[in-house]
Write a structure and sequence with these properties.
Elements: H1 4-18, E1 20-25, H2 32-44, E2 53-55, E3 71-74, H3 76-79, H4 87-100, E4 104-114, E5 122-125, E6 140-145, E7 156-159, E8 171-172, E9 179-180, E10 190-193, E11 199-204, E12 209-211, E13 220-229, H5 230-238
Antiparallel strand pairs: 1-11, 2-3, 3-4, 4-13, 5-12, 6-11, 6-13, 7-10, 7-12, 8-9
Helix pairs in contact: 1-4
Protein name: Phytanoyl-CoA dioxygenase family protein
Organism: Streptomyces hebeiensis
Pfam family, one: PhyH
């Protein structure tokens, strides 16, 4: 049984202290097949993603006969609205409001998928570098595993306490399609956070994170829900920033993360 109120009360302090926290199961075992089916329909093209689909690992040449190195699909809930009616959205919203405040609302969502043996890491970065300047910087991304995620197939790595420091300078990846910053697994405080299928980990918008490439025989499917205060969502939209819903810009937009 999933008891959201108990789970988040135990992790709120860890989230505040470390910038990330495992929040336990948000998808019940019996519901995983429903989410996986929708996910596979996106990957196969049965649910058309159009320009919302891209390769987060496009800076590395693809192996012949493979699809994207790291498939990223923005706004799956806008492309397939029934997703919002499933249990995850209500549970994740409750977690987000406990972690960043009762005014939290869903800002955007995305799927990030790693095929077997693609082996391409997601570059180190801080999400806030992608976002416009915010007077209220509260934000939380809730990363939900649809498969068991470990170090070898691409679980998340975070740098403990990095959310309390200034944003690092970010720069475009070698192909100019995404961004990255300098960091490594040897950074003090860097730690992997393995999770089981259906479980989630939450991180702030300013927490350094990355994941290794998938070097296993299995797939690694993740669904990410992103939250911030409702007033800040209106602030973004007034500036034309909607995380790829109507505009498709993957660049440094936060002035604090711009390289000098």
């Amino acid at each position: 049984m999933i008891v959201v109120a108990q789970v988040v009360s135990e992790v709120a302090q860890k989230f505040a202290d470390d910038g990330f926290a495992a929040v336990g199961a948000l998808i019940a075992p019996g519901d995983l097949a429903i989410y996986r089916d929708i996910y596979e329909r996106f990957l196969s093209g049965d649910i058309e993603a159009g320009d919302k689909r891209s390769d987060l690992g496009s800076h590395v040449p693809r192996k012949e006969g493979t699809r994207e190195n790291i498939t990223q699909i923005m706004w799956p809930s806008a492309l397939h609205p029934p997703l919002r009616e499933l249990p995850l959205h209500e549970r994740a919203l409750a977690v987000a409001r406990e972690l960043i405040g009762p005014d939290a609302e869903l800002d955007f969502d995305m799927m990030i998928h790693k095929d077997p043996h693609t082996g391409v890491p997601t570059p180190w970065h801080q999400d806030a570098a992608y976002w416009v300047d915010m007077p209220d910087k509260r934000a939380v991304s809730i990363w939900i595993a649809l498969d068991d995620a470990d170090v070898d197939n691409g679980c998340m790595w975070y740098v403990r306490g990095s959310h309390r420091r200034p944003l690092r300078p970010h720069r475009p990846t070698s192909d100019g399609r995404n961004i990255q910053c300098d960091c490594s697994e040897e950074e003090p405080g860097a730690t992997p956070v393995p999770v089981r299928a259906g479980e989630a980990v939450a991180h702030s918008g300013t927490t350094l994170h990355y994941s290794r490439g998938n070097t296993t025989d299995g797939t690694r499917r993740a669904y990410i829900l992103n939250y911030r205060p409702a007033a800040m969502i209106r602030h973004e939209r007034a500036q034309g920033a909607d995380h790829g819903l109507n505009e498709n810009v993957r660049q440094v937009r936060n002035s604090d993360a711009a390289e000098n």
